[in-house]
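In this supplementary section we document a worked example of the pipeline. Step one takes a protein sequence of length 322 as its only input; no multiple sequence alignment statistics are reported here. Step two produces a three-dimensional model, which step three serialises into structure tokens for compact storage. The input and output of this example are shown verbatim.
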Amino acid sequence: MNQSFAVWATKPSIEVKDSVADMIFDLVAKKFIGISPPESTDLRKNFEDFLKGMISFPIYFPGTSFYNCMQGRRNIQRKLTDLLKERLSTPGKKHGDLLDLLVEELQSEKPMIDEKIATDVLAVLFFTGFVTLSATLTIGLKLLTDNPKVVETLKEEHETILKKREDLNSGFTWEEYKSLTFTTQVMNEINRMSNVTPGIFRKALKDVQVNGYTIPAGWLVMISPTAVHLNAESYDEPLKFNPWRWMTQDETKRIAQQRNFIPFGGGIRLCLGAEFSKLFISLFLHVLVTKYRWVEIKGGDVLRIGEMMIPQGYHIQLVPAT
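The serialised model returned by step three reads:
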């Protein structure tokens, strides 16, 4: 991550979403399955093909978005399956990545997963990092740019961490991550407002009564996080970026906010990448506010549909802090 920031700081400007996506994918490919460019470049193209055709008319014919989407999905599964089989055949050779841990679990006496689940876990974590995180951080950077008081408070929290370190050159530790209070509030607010996942699906296992209506058993229900997170009954001034709302002392408001906060889903089926996303955002913000400042160059016009997005891109110049 530090290397990516340093490279960005040498350029006149960067497009935030594309640059963050590049950084995340290269990092995830290395830490999850131990591959680097150019090998990871082909895998990324397959993810891009998959993403472009996810919401498309289902015509499975060469040249269509849906066909490319399905081919990308097939290639992703083939690549991850081949890597897993290769590691299983040489269990003594360690690479220091997530795939090593999955292999250890698969070869334990009573494994909790099988090979199919292992490859699905990898694919989901890749998708979470590559697609949703880059969009979330782009929106987050725009929100921070428009709210300098939040940036100053963030800097104070992270500079306090630096002052407590015995070794100023040491890395960001787990204890430091867990000690972050305001950063967590900022993350919550960015996730609440960005809503990069347009829908969450659940299946009704039995008839359910909701506000006088019956959802029959077997029906598929789509929950809109945007509708939940921008509901004025749960959040005061829902369109206002206000990280301080998460430290309210009003017990009723606090419970309402937490109960209606679903950026990673809800119940027992939370997003597999939830904790990875939180850690990554915290580390990104730590590097950003302690080592750099930024200037808005162009773009940044926000559009709301089922999610919050910046369709024309967001360009900034990153400048080392003095």
